Amino acid sequence: MKVYIGKSPKWWGPYQIADLLQWVGVSEDRCQKIGERLNKTWFGPFCEWFHGRFRKQKVVVKVHYYDTWSVDSTLAPIILPLLKQLKATQHGHPFTDDEDVPEELRSSAAPALTEEEKNCGVPDQLHEKRWEWIMNEMIWAFEQLNDPDHDNKFWQGRDDLADIDNITEHIKRVKCDFEGLKAHEERIRRGTTLFGKYYQALWD
Predict the structure, then answer these.
(1) Is residue 68 domain-resident?
(2) Tens digits of per-residue pLDDT, 36-70?
(3) 83-113 residue pLDDT tens
């Protein structure tokens, strides 16, 4: 697979163009008013048309036949660094459902909001922490999916097969923490499920 995604093209509209007048001494307030006037003329729709027609982001994706042998394995090493960078640079935090986080992070555990705050859509004090917890779960899940040996710690004797000729003896030696393995797999599944659920919230 080969992927090239260029920078998003900078938006140039009436307000941005009017702001250039600050270079010749026009005040910021005056530029704002000029931008408002330009936006109400034909110039506003023209900028939108020009941006949509000529200012497109360059995206080139080449998929090889072997990339689809295991699409989840192909995408995992791409998704993980994106999630980590998003967590490091993210400025906004989307609204999330209480059912997706531990009880101590749910809205019911946060200090109550006033009626005025509720009417204004003000998030509670645990709003950011809920999203950070969800982001951590997604990152953890994809870290596991990028590690081919992520479940080794739940097995004992599995790697000794080459040294044992008798399959019965091998079976006797192999032990597995099935409860731990099940919990591990369920957490991975939860992380990937959260990734799908909040896919459209993965913005900076």
Answers:
(1) no
(2) 999 999 998 998 888 887 888 888 999 999 999 99
(3) 999 999 988 899 999 999 999 999 889 888 8
Query: What SS3 class is residue 156?
Result: strand
Q: Decide if 15 contacts 37 (C-beta within 8 A).
A: no
Give the chain's radius of gyration (CA, Å). 26
Please count the structural domains in the chain: 2
Contact 132, 83 (CB under 8 A): no
End-to-end CA distance of the chain: 26
Output the DSSP codes for 45-104: HHHHHHHHHH-PPPEEEE--GGGGSSHHHHHHHHHHHHHHHHHHH--------GGGS-GG
Residues 90, 20 share a domain: no
Biggest alpha carbon–alpha carbon distance for the chain: 88
- What six digits make up the tokens of 91? 């400025």
Structural domain contains residue 191? yes
Q: How many residues are there in the chain?
A: 204
3-state secondary structure at position 155: strand
Same-domain pairing of 92 and 190: yes
Domain that holds residue 85: 73-204
Same domain, 58 and 107: no
Q: Are residues 52 and 97 in the same domain?
A: no
In the three-class reduction of DSSP (H, G, I as helix; E, B as strand; rest coil), residue 193 is classed as: helix
